[in-house]
Amino acid sequence: MSLRTVRWAGVVLGFLGVALTILFHWQVFFWVPTEASMGIVQRIFYIHLPAAWVGFFAFGIVALCSAVYLWLGEEKLDHAARAAAEGGMIFTTIVLTSGPLWARLAWGTWWTWEPRLTLTLLLWFIYLGYFLVRSSTDNLDRGRKFAAVVGVVGALNIPLIHMSVYWFRSLHPQPVVARVDGPQLHPDMATTVFTALGAWTLVFLSLFLFRYAAARLEAYADRVEAARLNPTRSATPEEVMAP
Amino acid sequence: MKLRTSDRSIFLSQRMIMKSLRVLLPIVAVGFLLVLPELLHAQAAGQPGRQMRHFWHVFAAYAVAWALLFGWAVAIARRIARVEDRLKG
Question: How many domains does chain A have?
Answer without folding.
Answer: 1
